[in-house]
Amino acid sequence: MFDSHLHLTAGRFHGEVEDILARARAAGVCGLVTCGSDLEDSRAALGLAAEHEDVWATAGIHPHGAAWAHDDAWAGVEHLAAKRGAVALGETGLDYHYGSAERDYQLRNFEAHLDMAARLKLPVVVHSRSADGDTAGFIRQFRGRASGVMHCFAGGPDLLRVALDAGWMISFSGLVTFVPEIAGLVARVPEDRLLIETDSPYLAPVPRRGRRNEPSHVQWTCAAVADLRNEAVGDVAALTAANARRFFGL
Ligand SMILES: [Zn+2]
Q1: If you measure from the C-alpha of residue 21 to the centroid of ligand 1, how many angstroms do you get, rounded to a whole number?
Q2: Residue 126: which residues within 8 A CB-CB, separation 6 or more?
Q3: Stated pTM of the model
């Protein structure tokens, strides 16, 4: 299995990264992409990628930090994205869940990352929550120039269709084990577009829900995805790992 999105740099993992990686490998995880949320975090993610041959990193500014993003910060992201071990831009995107006060900042930040993706020919890791319409708008606007992965997919069927039509990957998290609306979309994704992830330390899947998530738990998401697609767990594991390697250019 390949955990296509997590946050190994999270404070909740501090001092335990080696143990967490050992448990992931023992559970059958062959690769992980640890995603940066701001400049400092992206730098730390790249540091972990440099230390472990089965870990890769991304560089970007999360929508939650978009209000502090500016030209210098994006230049910093671009600089980090060119480093060895960096496989994508992000995580970035739009999150309107807590209201729209910073919507303009988020739109500007997302567009800056898509511009960089087009220029650097790198994929973008996108977080989209309660923002289906604007996210779909950017996907259409950048069609043919930039694409990426809808990480922890939590949108509706329309956003799914727009993303798939534009060639994007869809990554499912532990949400598929406890959100029926998301579980109901899993079988609609063609096999060459499918990825799985933990987004750990957040969003632990059933039966680990409510506890700290970690990459070894990707096995529960893999099993749920296999069940929802009526496919063998081993086949989904191999397929999504091969997709991750191809998509991230490993
Ligand atoms: Zn994330």
Answers
A1: 17
A2: 90, 91, 92, 93, 110, 135, 148, 149, 150, 151
A3: 0.96
CATH of the domain spanning 2-247? 3.20.20.140
143 C-alpha vs ligand 1 centroid, how far in Å? 23
Q: What tokens were used for 85?
A: 């071990």
CA of 229 to the centre of ligand 1 (A): 24
From the CA of 152, how far away is ligand 1's center (Å)? 8
Checking if the pLDDT of 99 tops 90, the result is: no
Percent of the chain beyond pLDDT 90? 93
Confidence of residue 161 (pLDDT cuts 50, 70, 90): very high
Burial state string for 140-173 with b = 16 or more CB within 10 A and e = fewer than 16: eebeeebbbbbbbbbbeeebbebbbebebbbbbb
Residues 128-160 have pLDDT tens digits of 999 999 999 999 999 999 999 999 999 999 999
Domain boundaries, the chain: 2-247
